Amino acid sequence: MAGPMARGAPDGAPLLEVRGISKSMGGKLLLDDVSLSLSRGELKVLIGPSGGGKSTLLQCVHFLTIPDKGDVLLDGESAREMGKRNICLFRQEIGMIFQDFNLFDHLTARDNVAVALRRVKRLRKAEAHGRALAELERVGLGDKAGLYPAQLSGGQKQRVSIARALAMDPKVMLLDEPTSALDPELIGEVLNVIQSLYEGGMTMLMVTHQVGFARHITKEILFMEDGRITERGSPEDLLAEGSLSRAGAFCSKLSEVTGR
Amino acid sequence: MIDDFPQFLVSALYIVRGTGWTAALILGAMSLGLLVGMPLAALQVYGPKPLRAPLAAYVWFFRGVPILVLLYLVYFGLFTYAQGPFEGFSWARSAFSPFSASLVALGLTSGAYQSQIFRGAILSLPEGQYRAAMALGFTRFGAVTRIVLPQAARLSIPAWSNEYSILLKDSAIAYVLGTSEIMNRARSIAFLSNRILTFFLLAGILYLLLTWLGVRALRALERRLAIPGLGQGEA
Amino acid sequence: MGTIDFYLEVLIPALNKGFFLSVAIIVPSATFGVLIGILVGAGRALGKGWLSRALDLYVTVFRGTPLVVQLTVWYYGLPSISLFLEAHFGEGVRPFSELFRLSPYVAAVVAFSMCSGAYQSEYIRGALLSLKRGQYLAALSLGFSKGRAFWFITVPMALRRAVPGCGNEIIYLIKYSSLAMLVTLSELMGEAKGVASLYFRYFECYMLVALYYLAIVTVATVLLHMLEKRLARPFATGH
Lengths: 260, 235, 239
Fold this sequence. Notes:
B: mainly alpha, 80% helix, globular, C: mainly alpha
């Protein structure tokens, strides 16, 4: 797949760099010295058994959970050095998509997208609403702007949450199993949106069990288990027929179960 | 004046013994409320349609009027007149006493609230229960009293614990009629001795204790009567 | 005096006068009650350690004792503190000790606000605890600071969930405002009692005042339902 020219920063400096993150909670080591990096326009896929630390890793990358050790650099800026006060600025530049959407259920689709524009970016109301509508159009939900989350299907909810994250102009998007809570027939619409984001040059780190999707969209798969990234490589290497990798075994088991 | 400890103890004990009257008020009013509330709820759900409006009016009235007003209304507005023809009968004095007026006011109010509790419980039961009973040949009355209400009563116990603590606190208002319960005794001792804070704090602690005891007792009852699976999770 | 004259010239004017005092008691008490409820409820839901334990104690005491006892303490009990202070520290403490001698009106409003606040805090706390943490996390992920996420996301959601309970509590407050009569205030019930014992027309006076309260409570219920409807959102049910 040929991406835009910008893909792969010319100077070679990664856009997002995760350096040696460790995190333990309740005496259990959830992340053990995890490092990875993303170049501009790159999409990497994290797979692995549940409880392996994928969600915790995304939360730590976002500094929603503060890691015990290690740092995250976005465009060379260290999250650690931002301190407590400016960490919101860091978070603003990274968009997060949650497995169960976490839409604000008292706000319409439009206001879900607009609320952070108004309260965080301090845009004026009309401006925020205009931008929100544009983002909803982008995910194909321009006609659902006035509906509340409870009135939307799962797939539509997830697309609203993508629009909400996009409205903040993030440099990187973290997607935490964005399709796991969806009925099978709704998964496609969300994956299509993610695909078009990727083609538009968005840098993304995605946790997913959609092996087929991962296989065709990413150049690198990271396999995570017991808080460590144990394998990394191209889908061809890791998931090839007869491959001896843990990732390959995990994925073939997955597709046995789900038939994908 | 109360200057020494023995005297204080006597006064305190006098207040504590008011618990008997308070308990009598609560238990009496709860029983009366149960007697009124259960049929009220059953009739509101299963009764004939024309009956529903008057029943709803009863609930509306007793939920909307302050207990203080009801106490005065029952005692001064009804009992003092009703007593007239029975002047001279020895039983009339106790039948129309402040205590029984308090019991009626608290009990009828509680009946309105309890009917709502039961109604909610009945409606939360799966409809199949009633239909299954009918299918077995129960009469309407039998199905309601034998199958529906026993289940509804169990589901109502948590709400009862709330009703108990409301009654406990409302019973203190009955002091205005002169029932010799905790609040009434605390007031007389407090104002007589001029140690107002001391004795009201004592009364407050007593009420806290009764709240706690009642909640515990009802929780124990709930556990004793519990039927595995009833009222847990989705029905 | 004829019955019609009694109603038109004595009872109804008296009750109308009492009605205004009742409103003057209820409105500030309900307002302070809700404000106290929000602060205490938030403190109990989110606070840790001694703060939340102190707030728990406040709620236990004010919910566990009858309002009529609390009201009596505020009005008749607190002046004992003034007497104590003056006896021990001389007349010099008067400006301070006078603070404990509340007027009947202030005592009633303080008593009702404090008691109502304890009950309201339960609804606020419950609403806050019922919220899913994910929505707060989502706000943080969008760049909200913790404070702004709480104020702009958590509070509006919690208030909506708390409205039915808080409204109910205000209805209770309206009814219990009649207790103000017991600290010498001539609000609705106070006026009714005054007229009743002056004219020996107990049933009529107490029945009519009952209808007044019924009307106020009914109107308030309708208004609160309208508010509830306005604030209602199609929330997902279940779970």
